[in-house]
Amino acid sequence: MNEVILFALLTLGLLGTVAAVILYFVAQKFKVIEDPKIDLVDDVLPKANCGGCGYPGCRSFAEALVKSANENHSLDGLNCPVGGNDVMKSAADILGLEVEEQEPLIAVVRCSGSKSNSPAKINYDGPSTCAFAHNLYAGEGGCPHGCLGLGDCVVSCDFDAIHINPETGLPEVNEKCVACGACVKACPRGIIELRPKGKKDRRIFVSCINQEKGGVAKKNCEVACIGCSKCFKVCPFDAITMSNNLAYIDPVKCKLCRKCVVVCPTNSIHEINFPPRKIKPEATAETVETTKTMAVKHDTPNENKA
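and the corresponding structure tokens:
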């Protein structure tokens, strides 16, 4: 009996030893040697793991940076929106490369269908999520392209940069926005867009994505783009294009002259962070009469002298 137990123990020990040796050689054969620069690059990243760079997390992005540097000797096409130019420069210094500065972006809500501009026609009583409501109906105001105002974008934001305004029922983006793009992905109607912040944080964009014809669009929202093309015709920089009854302003070509804002009949073009326009005083009848009198008095001596 003791011999049987001893034989079993020796057999198990021998099998364990052989298995350990095999596993060791297999591990050495197929082991992955990680570039030490990955840890260095990962340390300078913001650790937000927001996915704004297009990768699942900061570690994956660090691996992509090192791989691109080793294989392409360039970091073109890679960017960390949260860390911005400072973080990308630090990563480039570690990898011995240079990186071009990129203009910072910010999320903009391309919808002005507030409670006053697009009054509710029906009452929604369902799950409080835009993803569900989008598949169920057009919206309380009737616009099939408008904001549903249920806050999926707010839930998706990890930076407390977007909130629903209780008065308008629309999301508003604040200065905390890092352009990670989470709200863009969360919006089922594609209303939120990442655009350059612009000089002095000023920007102009068409705050509407409704592609219906003017009469139909205007019926559901007072400030909808009706596709009249007035902005397209007045723009001196070819920054505005018309497609499917909708105007779109190219932020790269736009020079912020605001001519399009003035001619828009529905006020669907928004201007952000601009100073108030100077209002020219209108000439009254009394002012015109006084001007004429002064002109006559000024000309009389010349006539007498002649």
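(Above: one complete record from the training split.) The chain has two domains: 37-95, 105-272.
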